[in-house]
Write a structure and sequence with these properties.
The chain is built from seven helices and nine strands; from the N terminus they run αββββαβαββαβααβα. It is α/β, with parallel strands linked by helices and 184 residues long. A six-stranded parallel β-sheet has the order 6-5-4-7-8-9, sandwiched between helices. A three-stranded antiparallel β-sheet has the order 2-1-3, with no helix packed on it. The two termini are 14 Å apart.
């Protein structure tokens, strides 16, 4: 069971008076892989979100084009060039979060990454910015099915500008979506 979870596969165990086993009679205990968040962005909002998500216990793979963010956030990966999306392997237990206030980076990274498996994909910005984002992605050739899964604006608290509140708002939405996933 531990090996399956580490390989990011869900596990169902049966708990009965006779013990714990795979399959069999008893109470079904569904275990899911740990929440993984792949976060792309920069600046104070990005830093606040990555710190909060890591302290929550999520596995966070953070990517930023700014060296300052790498200094403030250990284990963050540098995005060196606009058109070099990092090699990513999403799965049904992975969320993709984009926290850019620079649309050039978002426009370069979103098209290839929207095709990754993920239970959640979202980007910051106002409703008007999200409508424009969808138009830009459509013009870039992203298919309507991939665009349908892109959430924006992200977060449970609308129009917040404070980095800590935005981080909490986004993480709460991601965790809520994660808890709704039913293990196979």
């Amino acid at each position: 069971a531990v090996a399956d979870l580490e390989a990011r596969r869900p596990v169902t165990l049966s708990v009965s008076p006779e013990g714990i086993a795979r399959g069999g009679e008893g109470f079904a205990l569904h275990l899911r892989p740990i929440l993984r968040i792949m976060c792309f962005g920069h600046g104070e909002d990005f830093i606040a979100f990555v710190r909060l998500a890591r302290s929550f216990g999520a596995q966070v793979d953070a990517y930023s084009p700014h060296a300052r963010d790498l200094v403030l956030l250990p284990d963050t990966h540098l995005l060196a060039r606009l058109n070099d999306a990092p090699p990513c392997m999403g799965d049904d237990w992975t969320a993709l979060v984009f926290i850019f206030h620079d649309r050039d980076w978002e426009d370069a990274l979103l098209p290839p990454l929207l095709h990754q498996r993920a239970f959640y994909t979202g980007a910051v910005g106002s409703p008007d910015n999200h409508r424009l984002r969808l138009k830009r992605m459509e013009a870039a050739g992203v298919d309507s099915q991939a665009l349908a899964g892109l959430r924006g604006p992200v977060g449970l608290i609308p129009a917040t500008r404070d980095p800590a509140t935005l981080a909490l708002s986004i993480l709460a939405e991601v965790v809520a979506a994660y808890t709704r996933i039913r293990p196979a």
